[in-house]
């Protein structure tokens, strides 16, 4: 069973490409802060993303970057080398967005930060949207303000 999840956290490691058989994916860990009022705790979430879909984003997934992740939470049981049972929780990524902290942009945030000039990185595309500056033309209106619904 999987659940849709979304969270903001800091990358705890640089992303790395992992290959298993014919499948390649990007993997790293994200530190997510939980604040329940009195205590602040950090929970580590392992994330995986399709390598072909996010190959252009992978070089910018470096330790310390603040990211917004959406995806599906998948839980699986395993046995450790010593025979102890364990649970692996992993999020399979649908989209990754870089989150601006309001400070001076670091490497990659200028081009790929969360701002209206760039596309969402859910497809792994790093192409900026075309923006044009429209000339502002004053618009004169006539009539009563009585037509306003408030």
- Tally of alpha and pi helices: 2
Radius of gyration: 21 Å
Ends apart, CA distance between termini: 48 Å
Looking at CATH, the homologous superfamily is Nucleic acid-binding proteins
* Broad CATH class: Mainly Beta
What is the number of independent domains? 1
In spatial order, strands of the major sheet run: 1-3-4-6-5
Give the amount of beta strand, in percent: 35-45%
- Give the overall form: globular
Order of helices and strands: EEEEHEEH
Q: What structural category do the secondary elements indicate?
A: mainly beta
Q: Which stretches of 5+ consecutive residues score pLDDT under 50?
A: 108-141
CATH architectural group = Beta Barrel
Number of strands: 6
Helix amount: under 10%
The residue-averaged pLDDT reads: 76
User: Biggest sheet: strands, sense, closure?
Assistant: 5 strands, mixed, barrel
Question: What is the CATH third-level topology name?
Answer: OB fold (Dihydrolipoamide Acetyltransferase, E2P)
Describe the structure.
The protein is mainly beta. The protein has one domain: OB fold (Dihydrolipoamide Acetyltransferase, E2P) (Beta Barrel), CATH 2.40.50. Helices cover 5% and strands 45% of the residues. It has 2 helices and 6 strands. It has helices at residues 51-54, 109-112; strands at residues 2-11, 16-20, 23-35, 40-50, 66-79, 85-98. It has a 5-stranded mixed beta barrel with strand order 1-3-4-6-5. The chain is globular.
